[in-house]
Amino acid sequence: MYDILPVLGSGLVISGALLLAMAIAPVWKIVRQLPTGGLRYSWGFLILLILIFIAGYVIYAKFSPVQFSQLFDLVVPIIFFGGAIFVFVVCSLSLRTTRDIMQNYALKQENITDSLMGIFNRRYLDRRLKDETERALNYSQPLSIFLIDIDHFKQVNDNYGHQVGDLVLKNIAQLIKHSLRESDVLARFGGEEFVVILPRTKDSTSYTLAERLRHVVEDFQLTLPEESDKDSLSISVTVSIGVAGLNAQCKDCQCLIENADRALYQAKRNGRNQVITSKSGKTDTKMNGGLIGAPEPR
Ligand SMILES: Nc1nc2c(ncn2[C@@H]2O[C@H](COP(=O)(O)OP(=O)(O)OP(=O)(O)O)[C@@H](O)[C@H]2O)c(=O)[nH]1
After folding, report:
1. What is the reported pTM?
2. Domain count for the chain
3. Alpha helices, DSSP H only, in 161-202?
4. Which of 192, 214, 261, 266 maximizes ligand 1 atoms within 8 Å of its Cβ, making it the mutation to test the pocket?
């Protein structure tokens, strides 16, 4: 019986080394899924540690002075083997957990994203606007919203087709998104309408921001290669923006949307491509970049 102890001893250590080598695969998959950064480097460092352990196991199996002549000599190989099982199980479970978390995150994102525009959808907007309104009221902070509508968008569809219309919508959404601050929330309200939530933003500031946004859209040209003669096609659009903010008369999200909608309607009636701020029936107007009425301080 004691004859097999040396085989058993080195067998346990080598099997442990193999298990450690197998543990590298799940860790490597985790590394590949992570974006460049501290966490990715930490998991990469774990691979280096595992490699060092494997070298240690192999060196022990080859050069250990222990003869494995009695059962007690197997204690260290058993600990090595147990340690390797532990590392393998932890690494495999980490991969499964990482995948589950990423899948859940992707599902959550899908659930709150508009698939055409790549911005938040109406479901998310309704919830977020309610939360932001409650937070603003609780902490007595200002809150503004924009209701943005692309002008004469039907003509884009009619002139260039629905697919080009979709492309215009997508590009305008991304243009607006990248023109906003990190703290602002952009969502599709429906059709060719967007809502921007501007937490901690007063009417006067939001008016300036809306004007800047209107200019950004006005200056943007979407260039598409024309299929027939390879000439490029440039499409530009303008937007009308209704701005509304919380105040003594308007203290919930429904009122915010209604006021912004009213202001937007006014902007459309005034000739489009302009910003109107709703303020207890009074409106501040800029038309085609020219100042017609300055916004009143809050
Ligand atoms: N391509 C495309 N078109 C859309 C989408 N959603 C809404 N539309 C179009 O947007 C157009 C909106 O038209 P209207 O409500 O008449 O408004 P408008 O032509 O922009 O005119 P004003 O808003 O009054 O300036 C309609 O032709 C819709 O079909 C979409 O997801 N993709």
Report:
1. 0.78
2. 2
3. 162-179
4. 192
